[in-house]
Design goal:
By secondary structure, the protein is an alpha/beta fold. It contains six helices and eight strands. Helix 1 packs across helix 3.
Length: 189
């Protein structure tokens, strides 16, 4: 049994997509142009290195969940929320850990991040800003990035919500939705 191959197969399981249903975690990719309407239904394969990074983050997250449960700390793990933008569009998000007074979205940045010369905390705030904004909107609680570090620890980085950012999210999703519908109209599945 080759664990790396199993991990890659697991990370690349098909995900069913439908027009009008988007994920908070992909809004940044939409804004940056990494996710385009023509690619929306394609399950682009995740490379082995990225699959390994995913596995590392999931392992840390799973351990943290076991700690909270084992110590009886009241929380919700990966609660699913949907934010309705209009009658056609829903954004789904699943914060990692929701407590009574705040939310933690965990990340495990590797040393090989694309921007090694940038402050990793600022990079995390920027690249996950839309996901964190949605998590704030659906929970109405302060949101933190929980940056995993080695040896095992979680450094909390505060996120500052913004009405302007939320309006931008709505504009981005509305435009992407229109573009996706137009693409599908001209390129039937």
């Amino acid at each position: 049994m080759n664990i790396k191959q199993l991990n890659k197969k697991f990370c690349n399981k098909d995900k069913k997509r439908e027009i009008g249903h988007y994920y908070a975690s992909e809004i940044y990719s939409i804004e940056k142009g990494y996710l385009k309407p023509k690619d929306f239904f394609n399950n682009k394969a995740i490379d082995e290195e990225s699959c390994q990074k995913i596995a590392d983050g999931v392992a840390f997250e799973d351990y943290l969940e076991k700690m909270f449960v084992g110590l009886g700390i009241e929380h919700k793990y990966n609660p699913r929320y949907e934010l309705r933008i209009n009658k056609e569009i829903t954004i789904t998000c699943k914060p990692d850990f929701e407590f009574e007074d705040y939310v933690i979205e965990t990340k495990f940045p590797h040393k090989s991040e694309r921007y090694p010369d940038r402050n990793i905390n600022e990079y995390l705030k920027e690249s996950y800003q839309y996901q964190l904004e949605i998590e704030h909107r659906v929970t109405n609680k302060p949101v933190y990035i929980g940056k995993f570090v080695v040896p095992f620890d979680v450094k909390k980085i505060a996120f500052t919500p913004s009405k302007e950012r939320f309006e931008k999210i709505k504009r981005l999703i509305l435009q992407f939705h229109r573009d996706l519908k137009e693409y599908v109209k001209n390129n039937p599945l």
